[in-house]
Amino acid sequence: RRLQGETDLGTAERKLEASLHQHLLTAAMKGEEHPSPEEIAERVCAFYKQQQGEQWRGGTLLLEGKRLFFNLLADKFGVDHKEIASSVDSLLELHAQGREEATILHSEGHLRKSLKPFYCSLFTHISRLEGGLKFLVDLRGDLLDIMRSPEMKTADMPHFHELDQHLKEFLAQWFSVRFLELHNLTWESPCDIMEKVSLYEAVHPLRHWKDLKHRVGTNRRCFVFIHPAMPREPVVVLHVALTNEPASSVQVLLDRKMEHLPLDEVNSAVFYSISATQKGLAGVELGNFLIKRVV
After folding, report:
1. DSSP string of 38-106?
2. CA–CA separation, 174 vs 230, rounded Å?
3. Do residues 170 and 213 touch, judged by C-beta distance below 8 A?
4. The pLDDT value given to residue 8
5. Left, alpha or beta for 73 (phi > 0: left; psi -120 to 50: alpha)?
6. What is the enclosing helix (H) or strand (E) of 169?
7. Residue 156 to residues 44, 67, 200, 230: CA-CA distances in angstroms?
8. What integer is the mean pLDDT of 262-285?
9. How many CA atoms lie within 13 Å of 238's alpha carbon, on the beta-carbon side?
């Protein structure tokens, strides 16, 4: 049974690779010799979404289909190890020959370029697509899920870890604090954003819409970071209570019956809940920046 499973997996991987190639090479049908980087980016996104929605629907197959996709991404869009080895040899030979600095610098540039996986360029082109940045955030979330799953193969881990590090560094550049917009939500804020604030709350779950109304009401503030490329997606959510003394417990702050204070009596701000909403941004420091901006 185990051998049959491995055979089926090998067949599935070959089919997935063939399907990916078909998506990437359809430009030939238009009379183009090679698809443009933008077309490749669009097709990779469409291909991944297709696997989620059709061939790998449900449970273990969905997880396995994603794992196969990331394997292909690391293999077909990674670095060329032979080219790296050749670049290192060439650089060492130039040093041994005592060649001029300009020649050595040029060789170092070639080595530096060969060390950058092609999927880094792919990430750049995907990020320029409509909804592309959100796609990459969700893509990394899927990658992290697979890396933490019991089915993760030890042999695949180094490649997946390398892929994750490059994607994390790429997203960290996009989600630099200077690109994030600070919003103070109120009960009049857009319903879809308020709903997501409720769903994403990880510290003190909201049980009722009245809980949400309380957390954006009098003596309460709800701040979120939003990226312009993901305008309807709160990235970090921070809840603040305005009081006239330190609270004895967080339950006091959550109590909807808590007495309202006139603003001129407020002398304390209690930051009682902060939630990162995007699994794919794990390890990208945003919470401290939000607190500093609010203060």
Report:
1. HHHHHHHHHHHHHIIIIIT-SHHHHHHHHHHHHHHHHHHSS--HHHHHHHHHHHHHHHHHT--HHHHHH
2. 11
3. no
4. 46
5. alpha
6. helix 157-174
7. 21, 9, 31, 31
8. 88
9. 21
Beta bridge partners of 268: 243
268, 159 Cβ separation under 8 angstroms: no
Q: Cα 282 to the chain's mean position, in Å?
A: 8
Could you give phi then psi for residue 217, rounded to 5 degrees? -90, -155
Paired tokens of 119:
């999927």
Report the distance separating Cα 176 and Cα 293, nearest Å: 13
Q: In what order do the strands lie in the sheet with 268-276?
A: 181-185, 220-226, 234-243, 268-276
DSSP-assigned states of every residue in 216-281: TSTTEEEEEEE-TTSTT-EEEEEEEEEESS--S-HHHHH-TTPPP--GGG--EEEEEEEEE--GGG
Q: Given a cut of 60, is residue 93 above it in pLDDT?
A: yes
CA 112 to chain CA mean position, Å: 25
Distance CA 109, CA 100 (A): 15
**Residues 157, 40, 54, CA angle at the centre, nearest 5°?**
70
3 state DSSP class of 32? coil
d(CA 29, CA 57): 29
Structure-token pair, residue 92? 């060492």
Please report, as a single letter, which amino acid is at residue 52: Q
Please, which residues have CB within 8 angstroms of residue 99's CB and are 6 or more apart in sequence? none
**Per-residue model confidence as pLDDT tens digits over 164-215:** 999 999 999 999 888 899 999 999 999 999 999 999 888 888 888 888 898 8
